[in-house]
């Protein structure tokens, strides 16, 4: 049975729902922190939480294409919201680090970025996310034409750097880290293999016709 076609209004409401649901964990955890319910080190807990959700939204953004290729879910209309949510979480993660952890001492932040490789990788990933967030709108898609797709391929180095940053930030890798990093590696591997897989699919279809 073909899926029911949604009206443009319903489609736009669903996209807004993705933003609302996506931002809920940050708001909820911020509230827990503000009301002293985040344990002994609320700043670290909040910082880690935001980093983890950045990874989760990167995973969801990268999962849209393979799920569509496999015919499991066509979520193209949600991809922009998911990518922007990854950026919002990364920006909040950085702000928590800069404002609450490093108390906005710019020299300490710069020294940390230079000295600790995992912070360097995180900073590069966040910097690369900025042009993607700024151009995630219809006007930029029109203005940049085919260059838009090339620019947005930066999401792959962002995901690789995010995975590296994550694996270096945690002292001991456990199930949670293996699952998140494993999914990112799998999704990046799919992107590399995708052109060949698509070509094989086309040839099979041509042969059948
Ligand atoms: C796309 C960019 C980024 C992603 C995906 C990301 C993701 C993460 C993740 C998943 C963690 C570990 C959470 C956990 O322990 O469970 C983490 C930790 C951390 N990140 Fe990021 N991060 C990014 C950018 C940054 C930036 C720009 C900075 C600061 C300049 C930063 C600073 C930190 C710090 C200090 C920790 C360790 C907190 C601690 O345990 O002491 N991250 N990040």
TrEMBL record:
It comes from Gellertiella hungarica. Part of the MsrPQ system that repairs oxidized periplasmic proteins containing methionine sulfoxide residues (Met-O), using respiratory chain electrons. Thus protects these proteins from oxidative-stress damage caused by reactive species of oxygen and chlorine generated by the host defense mechanisms. MsrPQ is essential for the maintenance of envelope integrity under bleach stress, rescuing a wide series of structurally unrelated periplasmic proteins from methionine oxidation. Its main location: membrane. This is Protein-methionine-sulfoxide reductase heme-binding subunit MsrQ. Heterodimer of a catalytic subunit (MsrP) and a heme-binding subunit (MsrQ). Belongs to the MsrQ family. Its cofactor is heme b; FMN. The keyword Flavoprotein applies. GO terms for cellular component: plasma membrane. GO terms for molecular function: electron transfer activity; FMN binding; heme binding; metal ion binding; oxidoreductase activity, acting on diphenols and related substances as donors. The chain crosses the membrane at residues 12-31, 51-70, 82-100, 120-139, 151-169, 175-193. The keyword Electron transport applies. Keywords: Cell membrane, Electron transport, Flavoprotein, FMN, Heme, Iron, Membrane, Metal-binding, Transmembrane, Transmembrane helix, Transport. It comes from the Bacteria. It is found in: Cell membrane; Membrane. Residues 50-162 form the Ferric oxidoreductase domain. Pfam families: Ferric_reduct. One of its GO terms (biological process) is protein repair. Binds 1 heme b (iron(II)-protoporphyrin IX) group per subunit. Binds 1 FMN per subunit. NCBIfam families: PRK05419.1-5. It is a multi-pass membrane protein.
């Amino acid at each position: 049975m073909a899926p029911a076609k949604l009206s443009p209004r319903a489609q736009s409401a669903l996209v807004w729902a993705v933003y609302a649901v996506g931002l809920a964990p940050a708001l909820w955890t911020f509230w827990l922190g503000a009301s002293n319910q985040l344990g002994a080190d609320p700043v670290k807990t909040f910082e880690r939480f935001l980093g983890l959700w950045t990874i989760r939204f990167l995973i969801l953004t990268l999962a849209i294409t393979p799920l569509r290729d496999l015919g499991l879910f066509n979520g193209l209309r949600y991809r922009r919201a998911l990518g922007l949510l990854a950026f919002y979480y990364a920006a909040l993660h950085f702000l928590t680090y800069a404002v609450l952890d490093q108390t906005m001492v710019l020299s300490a932040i710069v020294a940390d970025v230079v000295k600790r490789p995992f912070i360097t990788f995180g900073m590069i990933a966040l910097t690369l996310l900025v042009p993607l967030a700024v151009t995630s709108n219809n006007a930029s898609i029109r203005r940049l034409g085919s260059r838009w797709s090339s620019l947005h391929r930066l999401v792959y180095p962002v995901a690789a750097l995010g995975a590296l940053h994550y694996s270096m930030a945690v002292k001991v890798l456990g199930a949670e880290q293996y699952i998140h990093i494993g999914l990112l590696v799998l999704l990046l591997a799919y992107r590399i293999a995708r052109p060949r897989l698509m070509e094989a699919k086309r040839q099979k279809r041509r042969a059948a016709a």
